[in-house]
């Protein structure tokens, strides 16, 4: 009896094995989709669409952040039939920055009709305030208002990021030129007190009246500024502008996304060394 039972079990096991092999062959020939890492479809053992698993390309996390806050938009005279525009935005995210974002500054007349539009790109860190400056926009009609809109944003998630690199401006001063060429000039000393080297630093100066209204803007670029380096700058306003300067805002816009040592510390793999140059 036991021998007969063992034979039955053996026969059942053989039939089960044959059935499993047949089912496997049927699935392979009629239903199985081999992973193709260039077909735009997640198949086989891919972890995402054409990425992960058997594919060489790693799956990149999709990152999104809260929208920027537009803090200020202002128009200033920039010469005959020319105008300078200032826009200021704030990134409220704690860990999400943008290696690139598009913006549009538009001048409008009193009826709301567009007179001139200027598009640009920039970048921003988490919790950073960013000033955008466009100078010399030409318009025969006098603009009444300006608007700032934000377009496409390429988000990146930072790891271990606490605050922006320590880059300061010392010996700030502005004076109106009494004699010689030009109307006004601003001076300062940029000090890179961070452990990072930067391909580009852009110094931006905003001259304001007693109420804080922008009267004039200007900027200059410093190339290849290493950790611990100090560098003087001078900005000139060649033509007279209305109003009395009571306050001088100066800030440094660092090219973080081209700083190899900065990116390797805060972004996995330091991937964004080929990001386009900023707005200036």
Features:
single chain; 280 residues; mainly beta; three-stranded antiparallel β-sheet; 12 strands; 13% helix; 45% strand; elongated
Description:
With 280 residues, this protein is mainly β. It has one domain. 13% of the residues lie in helices and 45% in strands. The protein has two helices and twelve strands. It has helices at residues 2-30, 260-266; strands at residues 69-79, 82-90, 96-108, 114-124, 129-138, 145-157, 167-176, 184-192, 198-208, 214-225, 230-237, 247-254. The strands form four sheets. Strands 1-2-5 form a three-stranded antiparallel beta sheet, with no helix packed on it. Strand 9 and strand 10 (214-225) form a beta hairpin. It is elongated. The relative contact order is 0.13. Mean pLDDT is 86; it is low at 272-280.
Question: What Rg is obtained from the alpha carbons, in whole angstroms?
Answer: 30 Å
Helix-strand topology string: HEEEEEEEEEEEEH
Estimate the helix proportion, in percent.
Answer: 10-25%
Q: Beta-sheet strand percentage? A: 35-45%
The DSSP helix count reads 2
Head-to-tail CA distance between termini: 92 Å
What's the β-strand tally? Answer: 12
Mean pLDDT: 86
* Strand order, sheet with most strands: 1-2-5
Net shape = elongated
Fold blueprint:
Elements (H helix, E strand, L loop, with lengths): L1 H29 L38 E11 L2 E9 L5 E13 L5 E11 L4 E10 L6 E13 L9 E10 L7 E9 L5 E11 L5 E12 L4 E8 L9 E8 L5 H7 L14
Antiparallel strand pairs: 1-2, 2-5, 3-4, 3-6, 7-8, 8-11, 9-10, 9-12
């Amino acid at each position: 009896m036991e021998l007969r039972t063992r034979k039955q079990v053996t026969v059942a096991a053989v039939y089960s094995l044959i059935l499993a092999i047949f089912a496997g062959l049927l699935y392979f020939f009629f239903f199985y989709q081999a992973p193709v890492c260039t077909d735009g479809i997640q198949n086989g053992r891919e972890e995402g669409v054409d990425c992960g698993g058997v594919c060489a390309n790693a799956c990149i996390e999709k990152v999104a952040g809260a929208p920027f806050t537009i803090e200020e938009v202002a128009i200033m005279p920039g010469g005959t039939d020319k105008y300078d525009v200032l826009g200021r935005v704030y990134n409220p995210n704690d860990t999400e920055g943008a290696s690139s974002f598009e913006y549009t500054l538009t001048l409008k007349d009193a009826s709301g009709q567009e007179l001139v539009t200027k598009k640009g790109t920039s970048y921003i860190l988490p919790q950073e305030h960013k000033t955008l400056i466009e100078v010399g926009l030409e318009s025969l009609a006098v603009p009444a208002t300006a608007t700032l809109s934000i377009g496409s944003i390429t988000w990146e998630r930072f790891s271990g990021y606490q605050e922006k690199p320590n880059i300061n401006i010392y010996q700030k001063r502005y004076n109106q030129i009494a004699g010689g060429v030009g109307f006004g000039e601003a001076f300062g000393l940029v000090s890179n007190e961070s452990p990072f080297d930067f391909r580009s630093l852009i110094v931006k100066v905003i001259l304001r009246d007693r109420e804080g209204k922008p009267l004039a803007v200007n900027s200059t670029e410093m190339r290849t500024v290493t950790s611990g380096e100090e560098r003087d700058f001078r900005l000139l306003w060649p033509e007279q502008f209305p109003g009395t300067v009571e306050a001088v805002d100066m800030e440094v816009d660092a090219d973080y996304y081209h700083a190899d040592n900065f990116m390797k510390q805060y972004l996995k793999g330091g991937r964004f060394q080929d990001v386009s140059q900023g707005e200036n």
